[in-house]
Amino acid sequence: MSEILDVTAGWLTVDELSSARETLPILYVEAIPVRVDAAGRVTGVGLLLRARPDGSVSRAVVAGRVLYKERIRDALIRHLEKDLGPMALPRLPVSIAPFTIVEYFPDPTVTGFHDPRQHAVALAYVVPVDGDCVPTQSAIDLAWLTPEEACSEVVLAEFSGGQDRLIRLAMAYGGRLP
Amino acid sequence: MSEILDVTAGWLTVDELSSARETLPILYVEAIPVRVDAAGRVTGVGLLLRARPDGSVSRAVVAGRVLYKERIRDALIRHLEKDLGPMALPRLPVSIAPFTIVEYFPDPTVTGFHDPRQHAVALAYVVPVDGDCVPTQSAIDLAWLTPEEACSEVVLAEFSGGQDRLIRLAMAYGGRLP
Amino acid sequence: MSEILDVTAGWLTVDELSSARETLPILYVEAIPVRVDAAGRVTGVGLLLRARPDGSVSRAVVAGRVLYKERIRDALIRHLEKDLGPMALPRLPVSIAPFTIVEYFPDPTVTGFHDPRQHAVALAYVVPVDGDCVPTQSAIDLAWLTPEEACSEVVLAEFSGGQDRLIRLAMAYGGRLP
Amino acid sequence: MSEILDVTAGWLTVDELSSARETLPILYVEAIPVRVDAAGRVTGVGLLLRARPDGSVSRAVVAGRVLYKERIRDALIRHLEKDLGPMALPRLPVSIAPFTIVEYFPDPTVTGFHDPRQHAVALAYVVPVDGDCVPTQSAIDLAWLTPEEACSEVVLAEFSGGQDRLIRLAMAYGGRLP
Predict the structure, then answer these.
(1) Do B111 and C16 touch (CB under 8 A)?
(2) What distance, in Å, lies between the first and last C-alpha atoms of chain C?
(3) Is-contact B24 C20, C-beta < 8 A?
(4) Which residues of chain B have a CB within 8 Å of the CB of A174?
(5) CA distances from C150 to A57, B15, B151, C3, C147 (A)
């Protein structure tokens, strides 16, 4: 085991993660960042633009693995900060119950949610952010759209893996499905 | 109809409200104000102290009627401001679905929630507040307690109308029931 | 007060209801009846066909007022039985928290949900029914559609008052929004 | 890789599972089986009695791992059948969103939910069962208690790993916390 792994006890090497991905569902958190008005109504949806392994680009939401011994809330904060920067000021909900569960399968016909690498189960949240957001790391861009724009056919077509449906589920949850 | 009612079209005179209370369920909103940490965990619960009609005092949550042609979110903001002051900065949830419905009956044996004046149905929310709170209007005091303190027997005994149970339901929803 | 009202203490005469409708939000329950498979997945949506006051017909969900001193669950069961018959065997959810709140206004531009008669606030539930359903009372017909059919443009166009959106919110809640 | 694993592609050997448990959060589902009346109110709670590795016995809820490429609803049905027998007739909720997330850590001080073997994250559901339940496999007994009995101090003391709190959260969700 490498020095790095001694420090970050319980994290996986690339090989170990690759092996786990063939044998276990992998736990994720996903967050749809939103802007809200003073009465809590969703006024904007933050969509990332990411480069995909095949060279194409795709709209995406904030997402990432829950690490060994990491709490759900801490994983959410970590990924929100990783994707939106340290000044985003996310407001996690009072209840840890996600508004939906997204089941990604290597086979796209099982649920419509598709991840060629793995069986991933994501706890999904809609998270108001109050502060300045700057796309970081793997994200090329961050765009704020109205709920109507985010649910338009042209924008929904820019998602991959079935995440266009996740956006519509999130807007329905917030009462903002057009 | 008085001049005031001409202006506030659709509001009720005292007599009309008294009559409606004998014939219809009256719609309320209730909010349990909370303080949360950076990861959204509830760290404090705001409890009001109110004088009751019989001269006793009682712990209470933010509560009030939804007016004719008033939206739920607007009623919540209005009552939060009325009870906590204009600087409370409440954060209403993304979804308008309440975490529970509280049914108050004149007969205390029906649901355990009791209002001698009326059959009231309250949409209940847990609402993080970020700003300065000052008890206003009918509230004598506002105290911030930890979830453990708020659910202690001595504090729960200071509520009336069954609202001690509402506090415990709210803490359960937030994962903070001791 | 009429003899009937002596018996059904607290119910409203037509005049009184008409008066209340101009001064108070009126509390409703609404239920979207569904068929589910053995694992609880929604496979069918029950849509009523109702005659409207203007002579047209419209798709509709199960809906009705909550009466004075009536509990929410009892109102739901009463309206489900009224609209689907006594053999429908509805399965109300474990939690009384509705999946959404629908705010109907005389002005259709406020929320998109519209009721020309009144300001109505409906607690909305998705309710699996296991038994035989027969449209009764004001309903002309009851049709079972797949979630895809129920969310098709041609079917959604047959609703009024904005209830097409309620159907889509219900399907999103059940993870079956196409 | 053994012949069994060729057949049940993606399942783990005991060694592999043991290794995964030291490096990844393991995904579980948990179900609190309940009896409900005709209006959906919880009237009884089904509690299992299980032998623990150390020879003691403990109250428990229905629980188990989500397997590779297994859907959440299928995992729930499989574990309900495993623990309550094939005639239990469980009624899974319309929405796959769990009522809470339970985070079990090897260190009991992190969340109060404790599993010495692993970091497990459980999606928790309250599931009405209509049929005949017989404790099977590792369960010694199945007892049906009222919500009041299930939340009594003497019964709560018979749980381990913090699951007494899960029972109270489930009763709060169903509006039946005493």
Answers:
(1) no
(2) 52
(3) yes
(4) 94-95
(5) 33, 46, 46, 44, 5
B173 touches chain D (CB under 8 A): yes
Q: Chains A and D: how many Cβ contacts under 8 Å?
A: 87
Which token pair is A19? 């092996």
Strand partners, A47: A143
Residue type at C155 in one-letter notation: V
Domain C25-173 has CATH 3.90.79.10: yes
Burial of B2 (0-12, 13-18, 19+ CB in 10 A): exposed
SS3 content of chain D, % helix, strand, coil (to 5): 25, 30, 45
Cβ-based neighbour number of residue C151 at 10 Å: 20
Look at residue B11 in the predicted model and tell me its pLDDT. 58
What is the mean predicted confidence (pLDDT) over D120-133?
A: 97
Identify which of B121, B112, B123 has the alpha carbon closest to the alpha carbon of residue B162: B112
Q: D131 near D88, Cβ under 8 Å? A: yes
Q: Selecting from 3.90.79.10, 3.30.460.90, 1.10.10.410, 3.40.1190.10, what CATH number does the domain B13-173 have?
A: 3.90.79.10
Interface of C with D in 59-118 (CB under 8 A): 71, 73-74, 76-77, 91-96, 99
H helices of chain A, in order, are 3-7, 14-20, 72-84, 147-150, 153-156, 163-173
Q: Do B100 and B112 touch, CB atoms closer than 8 A?
A: no
Which site among D104, D163, D168 would you substitute to test the B interface, given the most B Cβ atoms closer than 10 Å to its Cβ? D168
Q: Copy the structure tokens of residue A123.
A: 């706890």
Q: What is the dihedral of CA C10, C11, C17, C22, to 10 degrees?
A: 40
- Is the distance from CB of B98 to CB of B124 less than 8 angstroms? yes
Side-chain-side CA neighbours of B99 within 13 Å: the count stands at 30
Q: What percent of chain B has pLDDT over 90?
A: 78
Query: What number is the ipTM of this complex?
Result: 0.90
Q: What is the pLDDT of residues A27-70, one digit of tens each?
A: 999 999 999 999 999 999 999 998 877 788 899 999 999 999 99
Pairing mode, if any, of strands D26-36 and D42-51?
antiparallel
Q: How would you classify the pairing of strands B120-128 and B26-36? A: parallel
- pLDDT tens for residues C22-66? 789 999 999 999 999 999 999 999 999 988 777 888 999 999 999
| CA end-to-end span of chain B | 52
User: Tokens 């009384």, residue?
Assistant: C96
CATH number 3.40.710.10 is the correct assignment for the domain at D24-173: no
Token pair of C47, please? 């849509």
Amino acid C11: pLDDT: 58
Cross-chain Cβ contact A40/B174 below 8 Å? no
